[in-house]
Write a structure and sequence with these properties.
Length: 186
């Protein structure tokens, strides 16, 4: 049901994150003393924090992608909870091909916060490497683009692990790892 407040909110956005990603990635404003990569991660943490709020209430978004991150007053906000589910509630798959975690589209898949972490990492990869430059598969793992800084690669590799149990288990854990990257002076 569309309410007046949801209509007002949706018409007052500053576009989606997808609108802001160019061929070589996203270039945020912010402190010029930080690298572009650090500014991207710092701004992206607002998205991770939004998903962390969902996870703390045992809600899995299941469709995180650049077009579902909207800007309101120049701040990124997680949008489109249309296929969100309670944690571990059995469901018949869902998500957008290309952004879904391995196994997410399977019938009777139990949504997990770790699936959202996988999708968040794909979005961050695209912010750093460029539009439609999702990491390619290399055997059972994702091959990261050369634009991903060496210091961030272990964080991204874990978030993109094919095995759900090997990933960060929720957005809180992923956010801690990203903050660790920033704390190293990036």
């Amino acid at each position: 049901m569309v309410t007046r407040s949801s209509w007002l909110w949706s018409t007052q956005t500053g576009g989606s994150l997808l609108d802001r990603i160019g061929p070589s990635g996203y270039s945020p404003g912010g402190a010029p003393d930080r690298s572009r990569e650090a500014r991207v991660v710092a701004e992206f943490l607002a998205v991770v924090d939004g998903v962390r709020h969902l996870h703390r209430h045992c809600i899995v978004h299941r469709d995180l992608k650049p077009s579902n991150i909207l800007y309101v007053n120049d701040a990124p906000k997680v949008a489109d909870l249309g296929i969100a589910r309670r944690c571990r509630e059995s469901t018949g798959g869902g998500g957008t091909p290309g952004y879904e975690a391995p196994g997410q589209l399977e019938h009777e898949h139990e949504p997990s916060e770790a699936d959202d972490v996988y999708s968040l990492a794909l979005v961050l990869h695209e912010l750093l490497a460029g539009r439609e430059r999702l990491p390619e598969w290399s055997g059972q793992e994702r091959k990261l683009h050369r634009a991903i800084p060496a210091e961030l690669r272990p964080v991204m590799a874990r978030a993109l692990a094919c095995d759900r149990a090997a990933r960060y288990q929720d957005a809180d854990d992923f956010g801690i790892a990203l903050r660790g990257f920033l704390a190293k002076g990036q």
